[in-house]
Predict the 3D structure of the following.
Amino acid sequence: MAIEAGLIAIGAGLAVGLAGLGSGWAEKDIGAAAVGAMAEDQKNFGKGLILTVIPETIVIFGLVMAILLWTKMV
Amino acid sequence: MLLPDKMTKILIVGSKTRIKETIDILYSLEVLQPIDFSSEEEGFSLGSPLPEASEASQRLLKLRSAEKELEVVDKPLAERMLLSKIEDEVDDVLISLEAEITGAVESKNRIQNRAHELEAAKQTLEPFAVLPLVIDLYKGYQGISVFTGVVRSDPAKDLIEALDRYELFASSDAKFVALFVAKDEAVDAQKVLIQHGFTEVPSPFGKGDPQEAMKAIDAELEALSASLAEATEKISLLRKKHEAFILASEEHLSIVVEKAEFPLRIGSTAHSFLIDAWVPQKSISQVQQAFQGQLGEDVHVEVLEIAPRLEHLHPEEAHAGAEAHVKEEAPTRTSHRRPVNLFAYLTELISTPKYSEIDPTIMISITFPIFFGLMVGDIGYGIPFMVLGALGLRKCKSKEWRSISTMLLFGGIWATIFGFLLFGEAFGMHFGPQWVLEPGLTMAQLHAEFPLGNELSWSSLLGFQLPSLGVLSKLHDVKLLLYITIWIGFAHLLIGYLLGIYNETIRHGFKHAVFHKVGWTMILVGGVFLFMFIIDMLILNKPVGFDDPRMILGLVLLLPGIIISFKGEGGQAILELPALMSNVVSYTRLAAIGMSKAGMALAFNMIAIEMVAPMGGIAIIAAIAIFMIGHLMIFILAVISAGIHGIRLHYVELFQKFYEGGGLAFNPLKIVRKYTIER
């Protein structure tokens, strides 16, 4: 059980960690472009925010997976 | 209330003799937005400015140049100035201003220029001050070449070998040199110097000892700075004296110029003018009465049409009909009562709603605070949020801070409600009951008996039983919370699609709405049934077969929905199916963020209360500090994460289902006076 629980914990950590890296990777370029657009025209803030947070759903998927794994552990 | 106010297009026609009065009425009503005249209409040309425009512009130009030179900035004044006073005095003040300012500003500029010159001269002198030579000695030789400049290494040794007749002066660190050498050896000298990284510094003009010269410059600079202070003081005195008049008269003259140049936006003939304008439908009678009452028969107001919500899909369809179909887009004027209007900024941040679509502000004002509250869900944070928000709304003026305060106030209210009724938590701890591991009772039995778990609670911290509040625990009912948030997602998106159907129907007709929104609504509802079926079959492992009514109903809605959407939008619809699924899953963040907050709070509570505090003595102070800093951090993170994620669920998931935006905000003619008063 101890090894099993440990493996589950590692899996949950990987799920949320890698998903976080993935969203960060995707968001960095969009965020940079959004800040550029905002510097040109303040009105672009809302659109920039939307576009920047679109990949963020990936990390939510990772988090949900991690939580489901974690509930198996306890 | 959901749709923007109905707009009416009106036409105002009148004799040019009454144009001035007409403009005054237009500005005083504050409900008219003129449509700029396009000079294509036959028989009409653009109007020309009223005669007072040019004089007022000239005065304004002078005022603004004085304003710039005196560095006058906008600021609140003690009292407003009467227009009649400005009219009477503006010319005299302008003349005296010109005379006073020119002298003061010129003398200030002269002093500054001289100071710059001296600074430059001092800079060229500076390196030469370290050599024991007077300035006259560097120039005026027939048979000798002089090299002065900086070197990277000491050239003295190499020069002895290369040259016969020369003299070298160097600074004590050998970085700055002056080399005097016979003309015929100059080329050799240059070669040696270049090897040592020589960069020439031109020798200064003038006479005498460079140090003396620098002292003289310093003395003059000091004298100059005194007179510069004097000149600046003089200018600031002038500024204080004229500031109020300059600000007030600039405001007044700008208004005069704006009004006088208004005819440039309208059409006119030799003796008449015509103005097209948008007016909210409910203000029509007010406009008609104002003109009727003040100008009688001289100016005629005609109501042309109420702007329709229906839009034409294809340009060719629009042109096929009568020419009347070619029309401008009506501006959007939304009117919400408090507190909904406090959320309007959040809609503006994306885009102004179109004239023919539902203003999503009311949607944001209802669900955004609920989402925020669900993610925070803690009395300990909810009450400070409420207090901060209420204070912010009272004190803050700027739109951004007001909208953040609104978010905190209403989000805080919901956070307190959920913290009290749903989660029963304050600062990440339940209120009760107090749990003790009794002998003979295993951990598993405790879990069964107390589903809220036995982590730290206020009861155990304070030492007496508090009533157990709330029905769920963020850290123990994770699956259930995820399940609930998926349902919130379904409901929220369904509202979005229903609003979408309404929008499409009023804009393009019901047929269009079926192909673009009803199909998707069917997919979503079908998905709901399938979701229930899949949960039962895969997660709860209930014995359900494929003849389950939910499965059949789900497919019956889903498959035709896909076909309808495919007909309406093409292959893109198929590609967007997974996107709809991810939209639903996206709502699980409501549970996930609450959970992460609770996890962090639990960690800080354990460190402070279970690990540090029992050591006693000074450790109790340390425990209190850890507790406070930790929760302050979670509190600040809650603003950022709950705020951003809450608004994101609206912007990304909800708005895409019905909101287009890109409307033009209604911007009526009006005059705002800050510094002046009419009478």
Q: What stands out?
A: The longest strand of chain B covers residues 7-15.
